[in-house]
Design brief:
The protein has 225 residues and is mainly α. The protein has one domain. 69% of the residues lie in helices and 0% in strands. The protein contains eight helices and no strands.
Length: 225
């Protein structure tokens, strides 16, 4: 069945632009919130208060972006383990963002609640999996001639993402589980998501405007095991 060009275009745009728009909205909302500290507070804290609905909608945008990117990678990785593994990880991340959107985080220094812990569970389905999907894509790009120029960039982003999440878990900690450098939670979170979102935008754009013709893609994918 031939792909629908309108849906295909929409999926690529949502996958590429959605995460960047998510970050732009969160940045603007943080700037407009009196008392909000982007260095100390994670983006999730914007879901609290009377204007929290804005961040909840922003989470919905991000969930749609991850889901769209899963379809983009599935279309590119037609054969091989990456054709299943990469979209599956992104689907897991979509569920995680959905949980984060549904369950508000606990306020700073507040007594932990079940709702707040479910929000943390949602985060655990997103951030640690970023280096995983990057590593899967890097391994595939290395073996795929049409994507090989993106291998080094993807691998470097994967290593940065892995280093950042490791630093976060060791020294910063998720909300409710503080570490010595908890006051830098917002900064470390942004250091991780910005390179990942930029990578999504670049890959989605390349997949849409720079992908080889269908015959070349199939030939390349047939060579991948």
């Amino acid at each position: 069945m031939k792909p629908n060009p309108v849906l295909d275009r929409a999926a690529h745009w949502i996958a590429g632009i959605g995460p960047l728009l998510f970050f732009a909205v969160a940045t603007a909302e943080g700037f407009l919130r009196g008392g909000y500290d982007p260095i100390a507070e994670p983006i999730s804290a914007l879901a609290l208060g009377p204007r929290g609905w804005i961040q909840e909608l922003n989470f919905a945008l991000l969930a749609g972006s991850f889901l769209s990117f899963a379809f983009v990678l599935r279309a590119q990785f037609r054969r091989g383990a990456a054709s299943i593994a990469a979209p599956a990880v992104l689907l897991l991340m979509t569920v995680g963002v959905g949980l984060a959107a549904t369950f508000q985080p606990d306020a700073t220094d507040a007594t932990p609640t079940l709702v707040g812990r479910l929000h943390v569970v949602g985060g655990s389905l997103v951030f640690p999996w970023m280096p995983v999907v990057l590593s899967i894509a890097a391994a595939r790009f290395r073996r795929d001639a049409s994507w090989r120029p993106y291998f080094g960039y993807t691998l470097a982003t994967a290593l940065l993402s892995a280093a950042t999440i490791t630093f976060f878990l060791l020294f910063v900690g998720p909300q409710g589980f503080p570490r010595p450098l908890s006051e830098f939670a917002g900064l470390v979170q942004r250091v991780q998501i910005v390179p990942f979102f930029a990578w999504m935008a670049i890959v989605a754009h390349r997949a849409y405007v720079g992908a080889p013709d269908a015959t070349a893609v199939l030939a390349s994918n047939d060579a991948v095991v």
